[in-house]
Every structure is written in C-alpha cells, then in structure tokens.
Amino acid sequence: MPLRVICYGGACEIGGNKILIEDKDTKVLLDFGAGFSEGIEYFSAGIKPRTVNGAGDYFEFGLLPEIEGLYSEDALANTSIKYVRPEVDAVFVSHFHSDHTSRIEFVDPDIPVYCGETTKLIHEAYDTFGTSPLRAKKKLLTFRTGSKLKIGNLEVVPIHVDHSIPGAYGFLIFSSAGTIVYTGDFRFHGPQGSMTEQFLEEAVRTRPLALISEGTRVSTQDTRRQTSEADVVSMTCDVLESCKKFVFSSFRGNDIDRINSFYKACMRAQRTFVVSTKTAVLLEKLKRDSHLHVPEPAKDVEVYVRRKKSGKFDDRDYSVWERKYLDVGLTCEEIRKKQERLFLHLDIWNLPEIIDIKPEPGGAYIHSSSEAFNEEGEEEEEVVRNWVSHFGFSYNQIHASGHASAFEVEGLVRNISAQTVIPIHTDHPELFASFKNLKGKVVAPKKGEEIHVA
Ligand SMILES: [Zn+2]
Fold this sequence. Notes:
The protein is of the alpha/beta class. The chain is built from 14 helices and 20 strands.
C-alpha cells in the first residue's frame, strides 16, 4: 500500500494548510486551517458563513473537503453528508495561527488533536473569549519538542521552529516506507532562530522520502524586508525617542516576540507599553510557560480598558474575564493625561478608540504587520493611513516577517534533500523547481489530489 499525501488546502495559496497523510489504514491530518482568501468570492462584502449551519455553508461552495470520518455530528447536521464514526486517527497542530487551525472547530471531538504545550496555553486564553477553534475537543493532547507519538502505522516527532507565535513546530513523520518532513511555518531570523536550525539538522538526518515545505516568501519578488526582531526593537526605539507625543501601533496581538520587542523598546525609551485586555489575558496564561519570558500585565505593561455599553466602566458592561482590569487598567482619559509617556497597542478594528483618547497632533503610528500584498490589504492600509493622517500622526512601517526568505527556503530544501518536494503555503509552488542543485523532484500539489511518495 502506498504512502500518500493529499493537500486539501495550502496548495498554491498562502495559508489554509490541510494536509492528509495516509499510510495503509492510518490517517493523520497536519493542520486544518482557513486560507486567507478562501471563499472570498462568496464570503466578503460583510457576508459570512452562518454558525447555525455548522459546516454546511462551507460545503455549499466546496470550501471544506468531504473527508469521511472527520467531522462532528453537529458540523454535518444540516448537510447531505452522513455522519460516521472517526476514521481520521489524529490532527496535529503546527502552531496556533488561524490559517493552520481555524477549521478544527468542525472536527469530531472524539478525534485526538495534538498540539504543543504553549499552543494549549494560547488556546486556553482564546477559549476565555469563546474564540478558540480547539474548544470542545475532548482529546486535546500536548507534546514538547522530540516527543515520539505513535499513531497507528506512523510515528510523529514534533521539532520546534521559530515563527511569529510561540509554540511553533515542524514534524518528522516516520512510516514503514520512509519519512515525511513537514516544516509548518518557520523563519531563521527571529529570536529563536536556533530552534529552526535544530529542526533542519534533525530533518536532514532522516533522509526523507518527501519534504512538505512552506514557501510564503518564495515569489518572483520578495517584497518582505529581512528585518529581525532586534531591528524592530531599535527602529521602534528611534520612533519612541524622537516623537515627543503619543505613539500607537497595530500588530497581531498574539505575536509574543513583537510584544517583547515593543516592551524592550519602551524600557529603553522610558515609555510604558499598553496592551489590550485580550493580550493581557494571553500574557497571564503564557507566564505559566517556563520557556517563555513575557511582561506581566498591570506590572511591566499597562492594560487599556475600552468604554463599553453604558460607557461608564460599569462591571455589568464587561465579560467576567475582563472585569478584573477595570480597577488596574487605564481608561481613555488616563491615556490622554500621560500620552507622551505611553506606547499603545490597538488592533486595527479598535482604531475608533483614538476618537476617545483625543491625542495631540504630531504623534506617531507604527504599522507592525506585513505590507499589503493583495487588493484587500491595500484597501485596509489606505483606511489606516486616512485615520493616521486625520489625527496628524506620522505613519511608520516597522515589521519582521514570520517567514524565512526565499533564499533561506531554497537552502533548507536543498539541505534536506528529499526525493519529493511538495511546496505548500505559497502562491508560487512552481518556483521551487528553479532552486539550484535539487536532487529530488518538485511536485506542486493540486487541491485534493493524491501524491504518492512511496
Ligand atoms: Zn503561521
């Protein structure tokens, strides 16, 4: 019986990784996320899939693969697909980004879901807000780097990598026919780049049959600058020191490296970093992970409490998890009073808070995520620029990518020297074939099509 790889997502697209590995009667899924532009032709302009219809609205447009024995009874309740007992043996989560996890919410709760211990802590924080795709999974099992997990005919060994969220892993999947290596998302230029080096060493040693490698930045033009987190600290520090007014930034609130970078920049520039209540909950959870160093809310960093409902900071206006910050957090008025001594993190959808804060003109905004790479991104950037200029602020782009450069991906693929290379999480799988001195063949995956690797 052959060893098969089927990519149900992440094939010729960035994000949406859904990779099924089949060895005889053993089936293992590596990630089960949503692509960034998946279903955009039906679900945009404010139209969203209805939660009441489970997976039904997704099946309608072919946005989820029809895999037998994968979905929960609830997810299939309003669909023509009949529920059957689990036939997929396990789902492995490489890291907690939504393009790798968000469709796990539809998976049968009886199927074991394996994730890193840090990922479980991040899940618990999101579960507090009711937004974790891993919620209600009866068998959420954890691993650390080097764990050996026996699943039917396969043995899966997670090895840590550096990425823009803690608890990121690649996997070595050992089968009777040979090994498959899956990189997950990775970079070498982050604070934990040595973890990715270690993953690479271990992967080379397995002399794999197949390598499934991400290639986010493999493109005809790599527009993402090779800025490191250390550069982010010094560039941010320059802005914080040269600007004598209010400074605020938007970035992915679960990017712990970025939070640490901004915290460090604030220490140097003698400002106080202010995070959202959600980020505060996440930091409190991650404090329990002895491998991570995170600032403590209401001690090392301040917490911003937005006005809600009555606008009077009444307990009843807030979720239970948020209430504890009412006493210790900063309100818009308190932010206004010490604006030149603070650096505030605001998610883009919370930009209207600036209306409440009423900062003096002449401040600075730091855009700390990827530069726009598609039309929606460009539209969003223009809106943010309008807000920033409306308040008389300067616009500064400071960001370190979560992904390795095209050159580094090429080096990794060449070093691992697999017989078959399957590019994933990239708009340009065809460019992998132009990598120099590759020994194996490159197979660009097509959505839902089997690739026989042995
Ligand atoms: Zn990622």
